[in-house]
Sequence to fold (195 residues):
Amino acid sequence: MTTEEKLQHFYKVSIESAKEEAAKAISQYRDSLEEELEKHKKAKKAASESQFKIESENAAREVNKALSSEHLHIKRRLSKKHQELEEKLFAEVEEMLRAFLSSPQYADWLEDKVKRALDAAKEDPLEIYLSPGDKDLAEEIERRTGIRPQISQNSFLGGIRAVIPEKNILIDYTFNTLLEAEKENFNFDGGLKHE
Fold:
């Protein structure tokens, strides 16, 4: 083999070796880049998922906050409406009580309450008080029950107050007291569940 052939052969082997090394280096570099790309994708995906989770939680918090605020607003409106209806109802009841005061049954009702008070007092002295608006019924109540009612200085809408002084007992059958007791014990069960 001549020198030139040897050089040619050396050149050929060197080029092939360089090509192989270059191909190997390129392959390793490509693998390295692909690995870096995968790591980058995973990191970006994890960051994206984390950001999505944070944003979702923030959105859920905002929705819950808005729902809570609206729920409170609805409760306030419902409570206000409840109060309005309750006031309207008791205004109507009071009107009915005032109408009852001018009915013939009112004297019968007063008589019944005086008799109950007399039964409670038994032999003890008893003082009966009528509201100032009922002073015209005093004689009739005395005729029916045998006890002369006194007229109270304070108006209590209607009904009677009876006092047993010896036992320091007050028997209260006044419309004001009965109405206030009903207001305290009133439970509004109306609404969607009870329709």
About this structure: The chain has a mean pLDDT of 89. The CA atoms of residues 111 and 145 lie 7 Å apart.
